[in-house]
């Protein structure tokens, strides 16, 4: 699966779990798309084509229309974008990847017991 990480997920540590699972992963900085607005970024990522776009932007599902995308979108819902907070969410996400539908938005919530 070809994965694009949003601008708020630039840490190299966030790529490793996907690479370990055999996926190709890049972030918007790698692609030279840093600063691109969400609507344009989704269109470019969809056309590239990436299979999955991952963000920590909790507002994205309410601001964008995903129906015409072949791209799958995942929101990592965490109190922080620090890798130690996001890697557990990524590890929970990886087994779900085959079941995600194109044009869908999936939210992976941080577990309540994390401090």
Q: Count of DSSP E strands?
A: 5
Indicate the structural class. alpha/beta
- Provide mean pLDDT, rounded: 91
The coarse overall form would be globular
Number of helices: 5
- Report, as a whole number of angstroms, the end-to-end distance: 31 Å
CATH class identity = Alpha Beta
Compute the number of structural domains: 1
Provide an overview of this structure:
This protein is α/β, with parallel strands linked by helices and 115 residues long. Helices cover 30% and strands 20% of the residues.
In short:
With 115 residues, this protein is an alpha/beta fold.
List keywords for this structure.
115 residues, alpha/beta, 5 strands, Rossmann fold, 5 helices, globular, 5-stranded parallel β-sheet
């Amino acid at each position: 699966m070809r994965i694009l990480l949003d601008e708020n997920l630039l840490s190299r540590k966030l790529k490793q779990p996907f690479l370990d699972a055999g996926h190709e992963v890049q972030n918007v900085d790698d692609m030279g798309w840093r600063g691109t607005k969400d609507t344009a970024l989704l269109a470019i990522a969809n056309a590239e084509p990436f299979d999955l776009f991952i963000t920590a932007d909790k507002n994205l599902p309410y601001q964008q229309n995903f129906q015409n995308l072949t791209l799958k979108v995942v929101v990592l819902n965490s109190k922080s974008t620090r890798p130690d907070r996001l890697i557990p969410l990524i590890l929970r996400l990886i087994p779900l990847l085959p079941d995600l539908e194109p044009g869908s938005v999936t939210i992976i919530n941080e577990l309540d017991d994390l401090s």
